[in-house]
Amino acid sequence: MGNLIKETPYGEVTAALEVLDRHGIGRTRLGELRKRAELALRICEAWKDHSWSHEPLRMPALATPARSGITGSVINLHSAWRFKMNYDESLEFKLSISDPLRIVTAYVGVYGHDEAYISERSGTKEVVASIVSFPLDITDKKLDEWAVKTRVRFAEAKELVELLRVVPRPGLDKTLPLYALGNSAKAGEENLILRASIGDDDERNVNNTLYEKNPPYWKHTTTTWTNSQFFLVIEDDGVPEPTK
Question: Which domain holds residue 212?
Answer without folding.
Answer: 64-234
